[in-house]
Amino acid sequence: MAGKVFFSVSMSLDGFIAPESLEDLMGQQWMELQQWIFPQRFFRENLLLGEGGEEGRDNDIARETFERTGASVMGKRMFDAGEQAWPEEAPFRTPVFVVTHEKRDPWERPGGTTFHFVNDGIEPALDQAREAAGDRDVRIAGGGATILEYVNAGLIDEFSIALSPVLFGSGIRLFEGVDADRVALEQVRAEPTQRVTHLTYAVRERELSRTQP
């Protein structure tokens, strides 16, 4: 049985998930946005940052998200930023399919991550990710434009947002350009923790009302 297709991101209160410029990706605002996950034990272990760290619901959610993921899909912008920032053992530890026009051989990293470069669009990338994931879920890792493409194509089953008490003012909005006439949401879960509120939604195709002639 095929798994779900989902995304999971941190978002500011005013709707942004990243700064506009890649140069600011590790800047103060982005670090504040992600501050809920940095102290977590699972995050530290997965990035080989050392022992210790916090345990609790935030840590459980980080672990659960990782464990449900059998393969990931991302856009070229996210890959370009990550290629410079990720450690040698990239934190995915599964196949990752990069939607890009660049032709490139698979890039295998220590620890189980192999990046595959897909040149013919989001659906072929998802098909390959589904096959690689087996009965586990496929995560659309980002960035925002790639997530939105999958949402507007009706290919997302579920998503989670860690709503962080941070204001960006500008940057990349998660739902900028969403096809709201097509997408309906059903809230699955809302879990506040000390640092963020975790929101999970199932995605349904909106039933458009029809008027009688």
TrEMBL record:
The cross-references to PANTHER family, in alphabetical order and at most eight, read: BIFUNCTIONAL DEAMINASE-REDUCTASE DOMAIN PROTEIN, DIHYDROFOLATE REDUCTASE FAMILY PROTEIN (AFU_ORTHOLOGUE AFUA_8G06820)
The record ties this protein, via InterPro entries, to:
DHFR-like_dom_sf, RibDG_C, Riboflavin_Biosynth_HTPR
* Pfam (any one): RibD_C
Q: Which domain of life is it from?
A: Bacteria
Ranges where the Bacterial bifunctional deaminase-reductase C-terminal domain occurs = 4-196
Q: Which GO terms describe its molecular function?
A: 5-amino-6-(5-phosphoribosylamino)uracil reductase activity
Protein name (database record): Deaminase
GO terms classed as biological process: riboflavin biosynthetic process
